[in-house]
Design goal:
With about 240 residues, the chain is an alpha/beta fold. It has a single domain, classed as P-loop containing nucleotide triphosphate hydrolases (Rossmann fold), CATH 3.40.50. About 40% of the residues lie in helices and about 25% in strands. It has a six-stranded mixed beta sheet with strand order 6-7-8-3-9-10, with helices on both faces. It has a four-stranded antiparallel beta sheet with strand order 2-1-4-5, covered by helices on one side. α3 runs parallel beside α6. The chain is globular, with a radius of gyration of 17 Å.
């Protein structure tokens, strides 16, 4: 049974239909990439999955229908989202931003253990844990944003544009962290990225979005070799 099953997902904002009947699945321990241009419906899909966008369709997580649940229940159940633009609390410390992601974790020992895991994953975050989050570089803020999402102890982590506006060296560091999260913790990941080449290299499975619909699907390697994907997203 897939960890996540999405069937005929639709998202509408007033008269605008942002997602038009999307279906896909995520197996346990898998990285799934959603690639496409701006406005293709990728971010709206993630918001719908976490309960932050008006949606219809079927969403099953770990065998349970969660379409009627609120965001807090979905997070408590094992879903977590690191949003586009990071959305940190700039006047709070890095540590307090991380702790904000642990509101569903009841055990103090669990919170401390999770902090240690984040600090091991991102040593730079440990070094800057007492600084204001707003004083960090874009890449450092992205590390904190991923760490905050990880603090909720997710079984499926959704990352929305983690490479956006970040120096190439830091992008490589974050890509390595995504691989380690998946490999070492067994956490399933849904990765939304405009950097299609990066996303497809990381992904076990991938879906290409156009105008709110899935137009291509396959393994990451298959989409990297697909002529349509190469022309549309890879500049080949």
């Amino acid at each position: 049974m897939p960890m996540l099953e999405v069937q005929d997902l639709k998202v509408r904002y007033g008269q605008l239909e942002a997602v038009r009947g999307v279906s896909f699945s995520v197996e346990r321990g898998e990285i799934v990439a959603l690639v496409g241009s701006n406005g293709a419906g990728k971010s709206s899909t993630l918001k719908a999955l976490i309960g932050l966008a008006p949606a219809s369709g079927r969403i099953r997580f770990d065998g349970r229908d969660i379409a009627g649940q609120g965001s807090a229940a979905r997070v408590a159940g094992g879903l977590s989202l690191s949003p586009e633009g990071r959305r940190l609390f700039g006047r709070m410390s890095v540590r307090d931003n991380l702790l904000a992601g642990a509101h569903a974790v009841r055990s103090r020992a669990g919170v401390r253990s999770r902090l240690d895991e984040i600090y091991a994953l991102f040593p730079r975050v440990r070094e800057r844990r007492d600084q204001l989050a707003g004083s960090l570089s874009g890449g450092e803020q992205q590390m904190v944003a991923i760490g905050r999402a990880m603090m909720a102890q997710p079984r499926l982590l959704m990352l929305d544009e983690p490479s956006l506006g970040i120096a190439p060296k830091i992008v490589a560091e974050i890509a390595g962290a995504i691989e380690r999260i998946n490999r070492d913790s067994g956490i399933s990941i849904v990765l939304v990225e405009q950097n299609a080449r990066l996303a497809l290299r990381l992904a076990h499975q991938a879906y290409a979005f156009e105008h709110g619909e899935v137009v291509r699907s396959g393994s990451g390697a298959e989409l990297l070799a697909d002529p349509f994907v190469q022309k549309a997203y890879l500049g080949v």
